[in-house]
C-alpha cells in the first residue's frame, strides 16, 4: 500500500525543482523560485491530486484529507492563501483563485501583496472551500470566496470575489454569484444568466406537510415524516462513493504514470 | 444575426401563386405594389425591375426560406414551403420514455405522459424516480420513492409526497391529489395557517337547485364537499352538459314561453328556429292551451359544491397576502408565472406546485395543400427516426453554394489595400465599387441532367445599387449518380478537387463570359461578377416607416431561421397600416443613422429556371410530346446573401 507515496503532490511543469518535506501525515513542498511562483503546498496524505493540476501563486495552498482534485484544475494563490477542506471534489479545468493579470506576471515571490494581479484586491484575501464541496468542471471560484461545506458549484458557474456560498447550497451551471454576494444555506441558485434570469430556491430540510394543492391524502401522517434532509444525506453518500472511485482512477493513473 | 455570409434563401413560389397551378411557370413577379417599399430611394430603373424579385421588400421576406426547410411535391412539381402544406398527426409519444400513446387516450386523458415521466415544476427539468431506502434505513429493499430533479434539487419531499412503488407514479399522484381533496381544498383557502378548518367542516350545504346563489350567505366558509380542481372541472362540465340537455329538450312550444326569459337559455335558438321550421306549429298551437305549457327551464349556473361551485373564502386573499408577506415565503417562495402556467389556478406558492407529467409530442406527416400528396411521412414508431416518405426540396432543386473567388492580381483590382492583403474578400466588409467575383456552384441531386438558366437584375433592387453580372447564365449540370458508381468511375477525383477550389491554379484561371468556371459530375460552377454599390449616408429621417417594415420582415426571416415554423401572416403591405405597435416609432428614429438597418447587406436575387427530361411516372397534365420522357420545368427565385458592404 504505497498510497501515501503515490499521493505526492504533482506540480504541473515537472522542470521545476522541489523540496519534499515528509511529515507524518502531511507533505509540505516549498517550491523554488522560477518563472511561475510555486505556492507552499500542504496536502493531506489521503488527498488525491492529479498530475496535471496547476498550482501557482505565492501564498500557501492547503488541501484536506480525502479531497480529489481532477486533472488540469488550476489553483492560484496570488491573492491570498487557499484552503480546501476535506472530502472535496475539484473538477477538471476548474479554476480556484485568480491568475495574475498579464501585466503583472513578473512576480516577485517574496512580496506576495504586490504580486497579486488584481489591483482591486491588493490585500491578502483568503479563499476557503470547506469540506465535502463539489466544484464541477470549468467552474470558477475567485479569490476571497468562501464556499461552505457540502455545497455544489456546478460546471461553468462563477463565484465572484468575496462571495459566500452557504452549506448544502448549489450554484447551478453557468450561474454567477456576484462579488460579495451571499448565498444562504440550503439554497439553490438556478436559471440562466447572471442576475435577472437567475432564481433561487430554498431546499427543504425538514418535514413538509403537504400543502393544500398537493393534498397527499392517501399518505398516512406518520408516513409523511420524511425529512428533506434525507435527500441531501443520500447525495453525500453518493459523493463519498464518487470520491472513492475517483481515488482509484486519478490516483491509480498517477501512480502508473510515475513508475 | 441571421446566417453567416454567404447564405442562400429560396423564395417559395406560393407567394405569388396561392393556388397551385402547375401549368403556369413563374414569369411574372409578385404584385408590384406590395413588393416594393413605398419610396425607392434611388429608383434608377424601376420599370425594368417590374418583374424582378426584390429581396428587400417586406413582403418578399416572408416567403424566403432556407433551402433545407423546403419540401417538394412530385405531383405539383413545385417547391412547398411550410405554408403550402398541411400536417397530420401520425402518433403521440412521450419524449422521455418514448412510449406511444393512442390518440383516443390522448383525447380522453390529455396530452401528457401517463406513466412515470414528470418534469420539475420549478425548473422544468425531467424528474428522476429515486429511492430513499439506503438512507432512511427502512429495512425493506423497496424504500419509499420520490421524484427528484437533478438540476434544482427539488424533490417531491418538498411538497411532502413520496411514493410507495416506483411505477405508475402518475396514478399514485393523482390518487393523492384527488382522494381527500375535500379536506385539503378546504385547507387551501380556509386553513392556510388559520383556524378556519373546524368551521369549514362544520358547515354543510343544502343540496338542491333551490339554494339561492351566493348573494344571500357570506361565502366565508368552505364546503366540506368542495372538490379538487380536476373534480370540480368534471362536475362543472357534467353540470353544464346536463343543463344544456335539459333546457334545450324541454320546450316544445316556443310561443308559450316568456321570450324575455327564454333568450337567456341556449335552447331559445332552437325554439325560435322551430317556430319557423316546424310543420306542426299550428297543431301545437291548437292542441296546447297556454296555461298547461310548462315554463321552459332556464339555464342556470352551478349553485352547489357538488355541481362545481366554489366560493372563495372571504379572507382567502388576506391569507394569501399574509403568507406572501411572511418571511419564510419571500420572493423565492412565490411561484413565477411560468411555473403557474400549467398548474392549478390556485397554486401561488412554490409549495403548491405539482410535478408535471411530461408533455407528449407528435410525429406528423405532411401533405401538399393543393394536391394532398404526402410529402413527409415518418415511421410510426416513436423510437424510429426514419421517414417512409420525405420529399425534401434539396433532392430536386440544385443545392446552391456561393463563395468568393480569390482576388486575382490580374483582374485589375489593385486599388484597395485590403483586397491585396486578403486573398479572398472579407464578406462582412465588402468594398464599395470594387468588383468581386463570386463562384456560384449548383449541385444537382436528381438523376437527370438539368439545364439551368439563371437570371438576375443587372442592378440589385434597393437603395444600394449593386451591379451583378452572371458570366454564364445558361449551363448544364450533370446527373447525379450512385455514390458507388462515382467511386468506381472516378478516375481523377483529385483533379476535380483542385480545379474546383479555384485557388490552386495559381490565378491563371480567369473568368470568361459565357463559359462555366468549373464543372463536375453533378455540379457546375459559374462566376458572378459583383460590383457592390455605394452606400449613401442618409440622415435617417426619410423613411422610418419603411425601415420599420423592413425590420419586421427581417425579424420574420430571422425567426424562421431559428424555427421552421412558417406561419407568418402577410401583414406588411406598405399601403396598409403597419403592424400593431410599430406605428409609434416614426419620429423616434430620427437619429442620424447612416443607413437603414441591413441596408448594407448585399443580397442578390437570382431567378433560377431548370429544365430537365424525366420519366413520366405519373399522369402529368403538362406533358409535352413524348410519352415516356417528359420535359419538366421548375423556376423559382433565390436570394444570395453575399456579404455586407462596408461604409
UniProtKB/TrEMBL annotation, chain A:
Which Gene Ontology terms cover its molecular function? dynein complex binding
Keywords, A to Z, come to:
Cytoplasm, Cytoskeleton
Protein known as: Dynactin subunit 6
Membership in a protein family: Belongs to the dynactin subunits 5/6 family. Dynactin subunit 6 subfamily.
Its taxonomic placement starts with: Eukaryota, Fungi, Dikarya, Ascomycota, Pezizomycotina
Function of the molecule: Part of the dynactin complex that activates the molecular motor dynein for ultra-processive transport along microtubules.
Alphabetized PANTHER family for the sequence: DYNACTIN 6 (PTHR13072), DYNACTIN SUBUNIT 6 (PTHR13072:SF0)
Cellular component, GO, one term: dynactin complex
Composition skew (Low complexity), residue ranges: 99-119
TrEMBL record, chain B:
GO cellular component: a single term: dynactin complex
Query: Which residue stretches does the UniProt record annotate as biased composition, category Polar residues?
Result: 174-183
Q: Name one Pfam family in it.
A: Dynactin_p62
Q: Where in the cell is it found?
A: Cytoplasm, Cytoskeleton, Microtubule organizing center, Centrosome; Cytoplasm, Cytoskeleton, Stress fiber; Cytoplasm, Myofibril
Q: Which UniProt keywords apply?
A: Acetylation, Coiled coil, Cytoplasm, Cytoskeleton, Isopeptide bond, Phosphoprotein, Ubl conjugation
The biased composition feature labelled Acidic residues covers 42-52
* Residues forming coiled coils: none
InterPro entries reported for this sequence: DCTN4 (IPR008603)
The primary site where this protein sits is: cytoplasm
Disordered as annotated region, ranges: 12-58, 174-224, 541-597
Where composition is biased (Basic and acidic residues), the residues are 18-30, 541-563
- Quaternary structure (record): Subunit of dynactin, a multiprotein complex part of a tripartite complex with dynein and a adapter, such as BICDL1, BICD2 or HOOK3. The dynactin complex is built around ACTR1A/ACTB filament and consists of an actin-related filament composed of a shoulder domain, a pointed end and a barbed end. Its length is defined by its flexible shoulder domain. The soulder is composed of 2 DCTN1 subunits, 4 DCTN2 and 2 DCTN3. The 4 DCNT2 (via N-terminus) bind the ACTR1A filament and act as molecular rulers to determine the length. The pointed end is important for binding dynein-dynactin cargo adapters.
Q: Which family does it belong to?
A: Belongs to the dynactin subunit 4 family.
Protein name as catalogued: Dynactin subunit 4
